[in-house]
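Could you please consider the sequence and fold following this short note?
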Amino acid sequence: MTWLELSVQVDNEAVEAVAELLAQFGYNSGVVVEPAWTPGDEGPEFSYDPARPAVLRTYLPHDEKAEDTRQRIEQALWHLGQMRPVGGLQVRTLAEEDWANAWKQHYHIMRIGERTVIVPSWLEHVAQPHEIILNLDPGMAFGTGLHPTTQLCLRLLEQYVQPGQRILDLGTGSGILAIGAAKLGGNPVVALDNDPVAVQVAAENVVRNGVATTVHVAEGSLGAGKAMGHWLSGDFGVVAPLEPLTVPPVPQFDLIAANLIARVLVTLAADLAAALEPEGVLISSGIIDTREAEVHAAFTAVGLRLLERHVEGEWIALVHRGRGSGVGG
């Protein structure tokens, strides 16, 4: 069998939207994200330059449906290109043996924060005593650690997670935040996502990282989020009543990580506050700078207290205390 490799160069802020689009068509929903890497001083460890564009790739079987699929992708990319810089779609043919390993060459070991190291599952890394190792197969869902919003959350998890805390990762994607929280000592950790593909991938990554007894992955959301479609659809549905979580039955959480987008955070503000212990911590990210005030107002209205604000490029992460907490941190 031969394969088509479809690639497109995109602005870094468009990476997740384009990745979601390609995942709808690519074989096994696989998407490769190749950021603008800068080699490190040692071995395969790299950093990346968020000011330079990334290249995304997906693969299609070269069959009778391939041309129709290519045209649909090209049309959808054109529409996304009206909002953020998106280059033209490039296509090349690969033999079976070339396709099998083509996407792996674009991923490297990546350090985030003081302790977190993301290691693609096919690479080897000798962990240092202080390191938290996240073994992931990147590209199958959001949350590979490349996007600024994910990095902001991982750094804040290092700061706020305490052993034995009950933690919720809302909009888990690949499960990266839930896995990181578990390896930092959180227990139990609930990982929820409305996207069934993300749920499957997160569950696989949880097993791969040896935290399946700690992290419970399920399809779903909190409160109003139960009626929402996938975040890219813009379909927020009608507000559904809050139902108990099925795994495990945890009524409130000591820490919630919500790496979503601003309008979803605003919609879920009351539900997030209700699910948080009075002295609990809410880490919210995925907030574009032009929507920060809207999120802050919604959280303040439900009694959450702002502790910290972090910025990376156009993206904001906020840390709040639960309502009913005292003044200060």
